[in-house]
């Protein structure tokens, strides 16, 4: 998608996805683990690890998010992704979250945060949901007749 | 992809993917379960069912395939997909395979064949592989900078 059609958070998400791909994680953006909860990026690692990344373009973008604590139970690791000029001191990193610095084109993992492995049943269900969502999206992109 | 850039088998695969989507299965084409083995279509159902579909455009396309028996151990159900004018009597349907009639735009399931559930560990590994492949492909389609 052309850059100018993307919102700032979406451009950061693209950079995050490129970064995570270089770490051998396959990414989907805007994933809905359960109704009413949408995460910016969900990434699936080679051993089935599930990471969630929330992208915040600026202070106001972060302070308006009242749902982020709900994301923690849907992943093994949770990260904030912010641009280099973001005031990182306002992020609740002591909650175990990791930190990614990202721009439109890439990024860097500054901190991994804590790992809190998902229960097996939830990992299984989330992996299946991720798989089906990814396949349906790529079918939608490939097949113009749909 | 424009129709005229697709091979006959690929056009049938597209019709199969549209059909299976209408049955709530998410599809990927050209999936490699293990090195040296490539299936035309792999589909993932709402309960995690894994189906494999081999698309044969004509008699010669079928008779030149010496690998199809290797596909059975990678799915819960296996189907042949052929165009309406295909000589279906040459297909080994007594092996438990299902049958799909398909063209470039859709199709119909004529027989479900037998269900032979995958062992749990293989289903888990295959679902993860499917998920990561689908996500990487959709990322490749969406992000022109990759």
Helix content of chain A: 25-40%
Share of β-strand residues of chain A: 25-35%
Mean pLDDT of chain A: 93
Structural class of chain A: alpha/beta
- N/C terminus separation of chain A: 19 Å
Largest sheet of chain A: 6 strands, mixed
In the sheet with the most strands of chain A, the strands line up as 1-2-3-4-5-6
Global outline of chain A: globular
Largest interface: A-B, 30 and 30 residues
- Oligomer type: homodimer
Say how many strands of chain A there are: 6
Calculate Rg of chain A over CA atoms: 15 Å
Describe this structure in words.
2 copies of one chain form a homodimer. With about 150 residues, chain A is an alpha/beta fold. The first copy, chain A, has one domain (about 5-140). The first copy, chain A, is about 30% helix and about 25% strand. The first copy, chain A, has 3 helices and 6 strands. Chain A has helices at about 10-20, 60-65, 120-140; strands at about 25-35, 35-45, 50-55, 75-80, 100, 105-110. Chain A has a 6-stranded mixed sheet. The two termini of chain A are about 20 Å apart. The mean pLDDT of chain A is about 95. Chains A, B: It comes from Pararhodobacter aggregans. Chains A, B: Pfam families: MmcB-like. Chains A, B: This is DNA repair protein MmcB-related protein.
